[in-house]
Amino acid sequence: MNKATKAVQLGELESDCPTLEGADHLSQTQLLTRLTHVCRYDRLERPKRESVNGTNGPVKVYARAYIYFMQNLEAHDLQFKIHALLQFRYVDPRLVFREVAPNRTKPIMGEQSLRDLLWVPHVFLANERSSDILGTAEKDILTSISPDGTVIVSTRISATLYCWMNLQKFPFDEQHCSTVLESWMYNEDDLVLLWEHKSPVTLAPELHLTEYVLLEMFTNETVINADLSDLRHGAFAGNYSSLSFTVHLAREMGFYMMDYFIPSIMLVAISWVTFWLQADQSAPRITLGTSTMLTFITLASAQGKTLPKVSYIKASEIWFLGCTGFIFGSLVEFAFVNTIWRRKRNVEVKKVNSKHVLKQAITPRPARKDMSGLHKSHSCTSLADSATTVSANSFNNYLTVHKSPSSATLPIISTTDVDRTVPDTVTIQIEGQTNNVNGNGWTTMTPQEVAIWIDKRSRFVFPIAFVIFNIFYWTFVYYV
Fold first, then answer.
1. How would you classify residue 23: left for phi > 0, otherwise alpha for psi between -120 and 50, otherwise beta?
2. Which of 30, 110, 279, 293 lies at a CB distance of 3.0 to 4.6 Å from 451, suitable for a disulfide?
3. What residues are paired with 212 via a beta bridge?
4. Where are the alpha helices (DSSP H) in 365-444?
5. H/E run at residue 154
6. Which CATH class is domain 23-251?
7. Are strands 108-110 and 49-50 parallel, antiparallel or unpaired?
8. Which residues of the chain are in CATH 2.70.170.10 domains?
9. CATH number for the 255-346+465-479 domain, one of 3.40.50.300, 3.40.50.11030, 1.20.58.390, 1.10.260.40?
10. Which residues in the chain are classed under CATH 1.20.58.390?
11. 148 near 210, Cβ under 8 Å?
């Protein structure tokens, strides 16, 4: 090969690989074109970084996030939405131009076109439902190359992310929602993701959540193991670097107190109005009880439509069941006292207290028979039958009204047969003669008196039981 041929080939090589001499006088585009020429730069190959022992170590990519906007968590979809600026910083030794252009101190800056010329780390959102680049793709991807080869890629994104919420204490719940970033193509041997040491995640000062309050925010660096069984990283297996930042949110209670808890307390209290109505007032008591029950069910169902259908019991459902139980209890109490009111027989109780009155109300017994044999007691409805039986034997019968020696106030009607030595005595309770105490210490009460007695006790028992329920409930939601 002669000298002329060698000179031609050398010129072709020089023309294929432009020189970097005089880079201070080149434009930014010209310098970038020469730095990324195929003869010295391959964008499909990751940057080389020598480790301490001389081997080729992984590329360290430092990340930073700035949150512009965060939408309230949507419980029914288990997701939330953010608008954020994601920034990645790494060093690419192939792009160092400090030595060839010592007078250039400012970085080379560009948009999507500059990014397309460079190798960039492929990082994806692991818990992403959907994401988009904000604005136009050409303007919202900012890339800069510093003289020492430091590359910074900034992207503004809008992302909808999954947040696996625990709603057991809803609406008193606190949620931890994370944004997870993972390397897609390169495992831990080739690329390591790290948070910036100073202010890795920053929230915009004007950021404000309407339904939640931000308690804290923290970052985490970890390694995700992927294998061929879960296809988390496609057909690649290995350990992949991962970053995450988590926000700790607590739900604001103002909306639920004004629109759910206070109205439900008022509805339960309204259901107690029936205790001040007489037991035989069926129409108003049934109307009040059923309308209160239907109103509360409508209130609870409207609130529950915003929640996912989960298998566990939520705190809101405990409140719903408790309030429903009290409203239903007032309806049952009316049915109970109304049944007692319509009874015909008086009852005798040993003592006028809850134990004995309720026992006689549930299992009523007629007036007790006097075991001394001096008197034979009959119910009022047996008067006609008794008189008929006596008259069949003899017409010499007498009807006498006198005072019982064992009671100074209870009138006694006696029927006497001249053929008998012992007269039959029928005891009749005269209206207006109530709470009569017999000589044996038992008290006679009419069905109306029993019904009124139960209503009066219910006026205190139901509110006290509801207060106790509230003490246990609010202690559970705030301290358990």
1. alpha
2. 279
3. 251
4. 383-393
5. strand 150-162
6. mainly beta
7. unpaired
8. 23-251
9. 1.20.58.390
10. 255-346+465-479
11. no
What is the token pair recorded at 286?
Answer: 């049934």
pLDDT in tens, the chain (480 residues): 555 444 434 444 455 788 888 788 888 888 888 888 888 899 889 898 766 666 778 999 999 999 999 987 877 788 899 999 999 999 999 999 988 888 888 899 988 888 889 999 989 998 988 888 776 655 678 899 999 999 999 999 999 999 988 889 998 999 999 999 998 888 888 899 999 998 899 999 888 888 899 999 999 999 988 877 767 776 677 889 999 999 999 998 888 999 899 999 999 999 999 999 988 888 899 999 999 999 999 998 887 777 888 888 999 999 999 999 999 999 999 998 888 888 777 766 665 555 556 666 666 555 554 444 444 444 434 434 444 444 344 334 434 444 444 444 445 444 444 444 444 444 444 444 445 555 455 677 777 887 888 898 899 999 999 999 999 999 998 887
Distance CA(198)–CA(196), nearest Å, equals 6
Instruction: Say how far apart CA 383 and CA 222 lie, in whole Å.
Output: 93
Q: Which residues are within 8 A (CB) of 383 and not within 5 positions of it... i.e. 6 or more apart?
A: 413, 426, 428
State yes or no: cis peptide before 284, omega within 30 of 0. Answer: no
Residue recorded with tokens 């999954």? 162
CA distance 469 to 268: 12
Strand partners, 427: 412
- Element housing 243 (H / E): strand 238-251
Q: In which element (H, E) is residue 145 found?
A: strand 141-145
Angle at CA of residue 270, ends 268 and 273, nearest 5°: 120
CB 242 within 8 A of CB 193: yes
- C-alpha triplet 249, 253, 256: angle, nearest 5°: 125
Residue by residue, what is the 3-state secondary structure of 347-379? EEECCCCHHHHHHHHHCCCCCCCCCCCCCCCCC
pTM for the whole thing?
0.70
Q: Is 140 helix (H, G, I), strand (E, B) or coil?
A: coil
Q: Tokens for 278?
A: 């007489």
Q: Count CB-CB contacts under 10 A for residue 274.
A: 23
Residue burial 40-73, b: 16+ Cβ < 10 Å; e: rest: ebeeeebbebeeeeeeeebbebbbbbbbeebeeb
